[in-house]
Amino acid sequence: DLHGDLHQTRAALVMAGVLSAESDCHVWTGGQTVLVQVGDILDRGEDEIAILSLLSSLNVQAKSQGGAVFQVNGNHETMNVEGDFRWKEEYRVSPNGDWLPLNFVKKNKGFAARASLFKQGGPLACELARHPVVLNVNDWMFCHGGLLPHHVEYGIERINKEVSNWMQCSNEDSDDTNLPFMATRGYDSVVWTRLYSQDSVERTRRSWDLSSIIAEQTLKSVGAKGMVVGHTPQTRGVNCKCDGKVWCIDVGMSYGVLHSRPEVLEIVNDRPRVLKGQRDSYDEMEVLDYL
Fold first, then answer.
1. Coiled coil: which residue ranges (predicted)?
2. Strand, helix or coil at 42?
3. Active site includes 7?
4. With contact defined as beta carbons under 8 Å apart, do 261 and 277 qualify?
5. Which residue ranges make up each domain of the chain?
6. Residues 160-173, mean pLDDT to the nearest whole number
7. CATH (residue range 6-95+105-276)
8. Whole-number Å distance between alpha carbons of 22 and 38
9. Residue among 3, 7, 26, 76 flagged as catalytic
């Protein structure tokens, strides 16, 4: 999860070997590499548009070399299209309902501009609509929260299409204005579930075993070798859960979250390997505030 931090995003991409190290140019160096970002580019940081632009530019360059750059929409992308800006720092609201900071005119103008960009059919909503919520690359499943059996039964293509149509729709009389529940609503939706990514110390053995069974069932039903998810910061870094079936790669590296060291999951010939940057700089107590 990048959460508006361009500096950390660049650090991760350079470490992954897909971006030139020079700070004044954005050159794809990954050749035929396929890069997947698993959602939550938006909120908590100031560089959201710059990151979207960077990934778009890298995708064009990657395709010319036989590679690709994919983005998967997360819960913060769907929240912004809903008009829910609670995690955009300057639009956050205090417990008594007051805007912080107390410059209502300035804040209201910023809110209106953001709402116009991200509303259904708006420029950035349509940009997000180009990206799926569930992605299959070489029989590895990528999604923000997690893929569950009832998602597969409902239909992955159907879920992706419903979310895309909902984001693009500007006709209030159309059924496409309805929020796609299966993907974006509830604790067991694609972008919100933490079934696989929750810390093992917070769970019972029975719950842990159940999540492994569900992961195995889900992957078997789609013929996949593994699953990669974000959404929940992993205080011990990128790790695998569910008997090695699910990789959890959100380390909270944005300055708006935990400001931890960048980490990247590299998969070559179906063999995952974790690439790590500099040491962590966050206080683990901050995790409670984030979750």
1. none
2. coil
3. no
4. yes
5. 6-95+105-276
6. 84
7. 3.60.21.10
8. 25
9. 76
